[in-house]
Amino acid sequence: MEISSKENTHFFSNNTILPVDRSSFKSESSASKEKQSCCGGIKIFLGALSFVYFAKALSGSYLKSTITQIERRFEIPSSLVGVIDGSFEIGNLLIIILVSYFGAKLHRPRIIGAGCLIMSAGTFLIAMPQFLMGRYRYERFPSTINSTVSFSPCLQDKSQTPLSALEKSQAKINAGCEKEAGSSMWIYVLLGNLLRGIGETPIQPLGITYIDDYAVEENAALYIGCVQTVAIIGPIFGFLLGSLCAKLYVDIGFVDLDSVTISPKDAQWVGAWWLGYLIAGVISVLAGIPFWFLPKHLPKPDSRKDSSTSSEQSKFIIEENKDRHTSYQQQEKLAEMAKGKSLEAVILSLACLLFLLFCLADFLPSLKNLFGNPVYILYLCASIIQLNSLIGMVTYKPKYIEQQYGQTSSKTNFVIGLINIPAVAFGIFSGGLIMKKFRIGVLGAAKLSLGSSFFGYLLLLLLFAMGCENSDVAGLTVSYHGTKAMTDYEQALFSECNSGCSCSKNDWDPICGENGVTYVSACLAGCQASNGSGKNTVFFNCSCVGTFESSQSSSAVVGPCQKGNECPKMFLYFLVISVITSYTLSVGGTPGYILLLRCIKPHLKSFALGIYTLAIRVLAGIPAPVYFGVAIDTTCLKWGSKRCGGRGACRLYDSSALRHVYLGLTLVLGTVSIFFSVAVLWVLRQRSSPQDETLSANGERGACGTKSRKDHFVNSDQLIQSTYWPEKETRL
Question: Which of 528, 562, 596 corresponds to the end of one domain?
Fold first, then answer.
């Protein structure tokens, strides 16, 4: 290089063109500065985008952790919570096409910044009902509330309760009804989640393409891998934040916590669900600030200036030869001034029509070509059905652990964030590592994906044997005499022991008798007296507790009884199998993604990934939480009641029925997806000859019939990029 530079200098000196020498030195220095600014700019963008990925992953996982809290706070069934959860996908679908197409022509960093602001606005909107609907009121008998007045739980007639207290209580209920009748506050949560989906839309397609356009080619995959790694860390912190907020009472800072008579293990407990949304909203705002100061374009690296394969962005935006464009722009302005408005409208409409016809002419053959590929169609069906099972399972996993094993929301979220999610991340990484180390081709990727699904759902079968029995609740799961449950539980709540009491079957104010049985309320337990207040209230002379077969006393305390002694051990077994299952299912994510990319024509890849993303969101992301919620609602034994009448949230589930519905629905969907995966493998085998399979094993040819060895081997860059999350089906 030194010799060539000397020769050039000698040549120019002989021709006595001194200004060229100076300009060349200037161009060299400017090129070095340009390279430094390029590297610095892309790294700043990389750091900002990583923080945004962390913010959106945190807020999305935090929503999953607050499913049960939202259900109890707004007194809504699980099916409606599923609609709220699916509204994120609806918001994403509303503008994804516009953002993906027009976003490349505009200022991409600022569009991402605007998306962060919209996402934060939606997050704040979710928390708004806490400040609009007043304090949380749970069902409690007056004797358990701090008061100087003593009440008898078993009201044989209303004269036992002071008239002023009854009137006061009724007045509060009527005031609450007038306030609640005007609005359904859960709509704010739905609209907020919808806004979150809209704001999140530009982050992935515009952020990844910006890195791909302006990063050095050999570093692009590493940068994208860093972004996706940070995105995996987000859900861990989201669930840990959910664990922290679930410990705090919903009205912390607004009420005296000593007056709260329920504990985190109570079915009516609601944590400070809104606090995490405020934190997530602030993080989203901070994440969007750097993008408002980043340039629209960065200097392209030297390795990409002469590249023959330009990105989509380079087709729309060209910054080179600005001097040539200035004269053209001036001429264009003069021409526009000369034209009439009507002529402009005609030309614009014709241009739009021609563009639409051009798109349709290219779109329909591409769609026909894509859907004529049996491997793509079968894999698409397998992915839709499998993600239905996984999305439904992940959405209601916190609820399942709480109801099945009697764990608090705080502990449940802590376990999921600290154990399950790292297992998923490690499984994705392991799948990519296996593909790279053993140089697995397309046929091998299909086998690995099928094997991981098969063994993952096989392990899921073990969870059927790792459940807890129903808690003993008098009148619901056992009779008042100790025998097992009745058929009509509403009528079974009343018995001879509480026949003299004026009790309501709609109340849920559980107490634990000394016989280890939970009673729906102190009144239904036939308690005649009470001592103490708040959490320390003790009930005496409970006629129903005394008539139980194993009872030696007739007293009871506030709150439900603990589950059986075997339940904590079963919970540990569940965690072990759940972690192994999560890891096994995640191993097949990367091979499946590679299979999708390798078995379609190169010019159809972007279109195929777009159709794949659209199908997953419409047919899996939106409906799965809804029908899983409907199925879970069928296992409810005792519904709560709203202050103004009507059915509220479920207070008690049938543990056995919940286990069979939740795991059974997941397993059935997974089994159907396995059949489609088998069909994919069969089609691939039919398309490849025995010689191809042998060569594929040696790394020379692949199963999809492509000619280049390069197309069959898994590029390490793609393995770094490809992650497989329900909310991130594509990285383009």
Answer: 562
